[in-house]
Specification:
Layout (H helix, E strand, L loop, with lengths): L4 H21 L5 H5 L6 H12 L7 H21 L13 E8 L5 E17 L4 E7 L6 E5 L2 E5 L13 E8 L3 E16 L4 E17 L4 E17 L6 E8 L2 E6 L4 E9 L2 E3 L6 E3 L2 E3 L9 E9 L2 E6 L5
Parallel strand pairs: 2-5, 2-6, 2-7, 7-8, 8-9, 9-10, 9-11, 10-16, 11-17, 12-16, 13-17
Antiparallel strand pairs: 1-3, 3-6, 4-5, 12-15, 14-15
Helix pairs in contact: 1-4, 3-4
Length: 320
């Protein structure tokens, strides 16, 4: 079997990139170790030098391999601990936003613009929204609202400052309320558990960090997820239809699919990898679809664009 060396190095890069992020999220390696991964950058020069020196010999691949592994470790570390880079540790005790709550009147919009830290978004059963937030750098997030609008926004802190601190934001949105959800996340590790949410459209833009979106039990008409140097993990609902646009650049997207849901994927990739795992998808024209797509009571149509990234689809049992 002949191995394409250029594709081999890309494969190694993605394996290392995903392996580092997975090791962090499985608590196999600490954030303090990964935060120092950027110091490995001289190995990129070493790899280039090896490629030149060993050119024309059977060992010429070693230089490219060193570069692929080094870039994979550095980029994987950035994906895993992105929320800790550029945010600083904070210069003062946590400043808390007094617990705020309210209710919506009719179709409403929820806007989240968060920088640095963590966020947990869930649903509430009392018909009201609730927000609580702290920041360890004395730059508390702002909460603005009206009868049909809620905005939670990290303090600008005069741009990026090493002492801006990290937010810890807790948000509950009312179940059954008709909502449009927009999230812009920079250097944030966010989790969305949207059981029983009734969302017309949901848009997520992630730059450096991670976002986990669990749509189990939720009704979402249109979903848009865009990541840059970030990792997105999405769990779909099997009892409702969905149209989604997913895009990532130098990142990764993993989608967990219930067995009863029919899925069709139109994938456009540039130097990226795709893994449909155990779903047993088959090609249909320019798309891939699950065997049960035509007969499924509910369907998810995914339009995916990846650049120097990875896309993985699993059944629910194969998701971590």
């Amino acid at each position: 079997m002949r191995v394409d060396r250029s594709r081999f190095n890309w494969g190694v890069l993605f394996i290392v990139l995903g392996g580092v992020a997975l090791a962090y999220h499985r608590n196999a390696v600490s954030s303090s170790v990964l935060l120092d991964a950027w110091r490995l950058w001289p190995l990129v020069l070493v790899g280039v030098g090896l490629k030149v020196v060993l050119s024309g010999t059977p060992a010429a691949f070693v230089g490219g391999l060193v570069v692929a592994v080094t870039v994979g470790v550095m980029a994987g570390s950035a994906f895993a601990v992105g929320p800790s880079i550029g945010c600083g540790a904070g210069a003062s005790p946590g400043q808390q936003v007094a617990g705020q709550s309210g209710s919506f009147d009719g179709t409403s919009t929820v806007e989240l613009d968060l920088k640095c830290g963590t966020a947990d978004v869930t649903t509430s059963t009392d018909g009201r929204w609730h927000v609580g937030a702290t920041n360890d750098g004395n730059h508390a997030p702002a909460v603005n609202s009206s009868s049909n609008w809620l905005q939670v926004q990290s303090a600008s802190a005069d741009g990026w400052r090493w002492d801006r601190g990290k937010d810890d934001v807790q948000i509950s949105i009312p179940q059954e309320a008709q909502l449009n959800l927009t999230s812009k996340l920079d250097l944030v590790d966010a989790r969305y558990h949207l059981a029983s949410a009734n969302i017309t459209s949901a848009s997520f833009t992630l730059n450096l960090g991670s976002v986990r979106i669990d749509l189990t039990g939720a009704k979402v008409g249109d979903l848009s997820v865009s990541t840059n140097l970030g990792a997105a993990f999405i769990t779909l609902d099997g009892s409702s239809d969905l149209a989604a646009n997913l895009s990532t650049s130098l990142g990764s997207i993993e989608v967990c699919v219930p067995a009863e849901l029919g899925v069709r994927v139109a994938n456009s990739d540039s130097l990226s990898s795709s893994d449909f795992g155990s779903l047993g998808m088959v090609r249909s024209g320019n798309s891939w679809q699950t065997l049960n797509y035509d007969s499924a009571a509910h369907k998810a149509n995914l339009s995916v664009n990846t650049s120097l990234s990875s896309l993985k689809l699993h059944n629910i049992g194969g998701c971590k």
